Amino acid sequence: MRISLSIILLISSIGATLPLQDKVWRPAPRKPEATRVLLVTGGHEHDVDFYSLFDDPGLRTIVDPHPAAFSGDIRRKHDVLVLYDMIRTLDETRRSNLRAFAESGKGIVVLHHAICANVDWPWWYEELLGGRYLFEPVGGKLSSYEHDRVQTITTVADHPVTRGIGTFRLIDETYHHLWISPAVKVLLRSDDPTSDGPVAWISPYARSRVVYIQLGHDRQATLNPRYRQLVHQAIAWAAGKSN
C-alpha cells in the first residue's frame, strides 16, 4: 500500500502539536472556602449547558438527581440546595429530609421549573417558596407557559442577589397565572405580557435564606452573563456569604 507524502506530512504535523506530556494534568483547584452546593435535577429535560453554571472555583457542587434526591440527611455535607427539578410529589421520608435542611438554616435556591415541584405540599409552596405552578385551576386561574420570549428584565429591589444586575434583555420561557404569595420580596420583573411580572423573589420563610429565580429554561438564558451572575449571587446570599 502506498502512502502519499502529503499524508505523511499531515500525520507528522498532528504529532507535532501534541507533545509528550511529562506531568499529570490537573484542573484549577477549588477555593478552600468554596460553597458546598447540592444540585437536584429530575423530572424535566434540560440542556447540558446548564451545568456550566456550576463550573466555578467558588463552588463545590454535587449533583444528586431524583429518585435518589433527599433519600438521606443532607444537612451535614451541603451549605446550599439548588433545585432544578420538577417532581410534583415526594414521599414522607424525602419531605422530612428536605424540611430538616430548610429548618436547619441552610440556604435554598429554586430555579425555573422547580416551582412546578411539590405542588401538593402546602408547607413548601405557601411557607417556604412563596409560589406554585397551578396544574389545576385555582380561583379560575390555570398556569401557562410560552417559549422563546424576548423580554426585558428589570431590577426592582436593591439586594445582594441582584446587585450589579440592572436591566438586561434575554430570550427565555415565561410563566403566567402562577400563585405568588403577597409576602414575597420581588427582586426582578419581566416586561413580557405573557409573564406575571415577578421573575425573582425572596421568599417569606424566616428560618433560612430562600430565593426563587424563574428564569433559566434553556441555554439562551443559562449562558447569558447576567443570568450567570444572578445565580452565583443567589447562591452566595443563600450561603450567608453576602449581605
Number of domains: 1
Question: What is the residue-averaged pLDDT?
Answer: 93
The CATH H-level superfamily is: Class I glutamine amidotransferase (GATase) domain
Q: Which secondary-structure class do the elements indicate?
A: alpha/beta
Sum up the overall morphology in one term: globular
| CATH topology-level fold name | Rossmann fold
Contiguous uncertain segments of 5+ residues: 1-5
Beta percentage is: 25-35%
How many individual β-strands? 11
Order of helices and strands: HEEEHEHEEEEEEEHH
Question: What's the story with the biggest beta sheet?
Answer: 9 strands, mixed
CATH architectural label: 3-Layer(aba) Sandwich
Distance between the termini: 72 Å
Helical amount: 10-25%
The helix tally amounts to 5
User: Strand arrangement, largest sheet?
Assistant: 2-1-3-4-11-10-9-6-7
Using only C-alpha atoms, the radius of gyration works out to 22 Å
* CATH classification class: Alpha Beta
